[in-house]
Amino acid sequence: MLTQCAQAVASYDQRNTNELLKQIRQHSSQFGDGLQRLAHYFANGLEIRLAAETPSYKPLDMATAGNGLEIRLAAETPSYKPLDMATAGDMLKAYKLFITSSPLQRLTNMLLTKTIFRLVENESSVHIIDFGICYGFQWPCLIKKLSLRPGGPPKLRITGIDLPRAGFRPAERVEETGRRLENYCKKFDVPFEYNCIAHKWETIRIEDLKIDRNEITVVSCLYRLKNLPDETVAANCPREALLKLIRKINPKIFFHGVVNGSYSAPFFLTRFREALYHFSSLFDMFEANV
């Protein structure tokens, strides 16, 4: 039924979309089992997508779209908060739940920390270029481990890169991440330097990264290339441009986490089905472990 609703959304069929959403909401719940929760959040996403792309669209129980839809979702779901309004504290709680429920992210972070620590065992400086740094929750474990290195920690330089946010302060989240990491480094006496970049990744030049060939350079891009269109969309695609940039950087090591799915496909229905398969597995995992 979710796939049928996505087909109606893709064709801007408001009548069928509303009818299918009514049926989905009768069998979904934010407090139900994994399948019911999945249906609840995907139904919200489909309705928001149609409201955003169709100015004349009227949500199920309201006469207005746009912000009105967000208000209704907030009223129905006390814990609901649009992603752009979520604080670092909110995201940290969600991240903690995720890593305690799934071994995947924990294993990724452990591999990241151990490999970089061995790499800089006898080095005085390391430069980490993180494409998709987000809130930077993946780096405190490394910072703490570096502080315990015999002979003292090396200088840690992080270039935090993420997509710009909407509004007057596109780099706000990346800057906040840098301040938190700086405070954490001060706590453990690790020399620290931070550079933030909030641009479309395919527009970043190697000069923006301030690379010093005398220090160890590490590039990390964990599970975020799925957000960049690939060669199925355009010949000179953003993903290809980013990979060429990483090749120019010529890092000592490149960490690349891959999500198994065609999230950058040019067709909405393809992306929707891939997301549905992926999150079905996640919600099954959460139901079993939380």
UniProtKB/TrEMBL annotation:
Chain intervals for the UniProt region annotation (VHIID): 95-160
InterPro entries xrefs: TF_GRAS (IPR005202)
PROSITE patterns xref list: GRAS
Main location: nucleus
A Pfam family assignment: GRAS
GO biological process: response to symbiotic fungus
Organism domain of life: Eukaryota
Chain positions covered by the region annotation Leucine repeat II (LRII): 176-208
Protein name per UniProt: GRAS family transcription factor
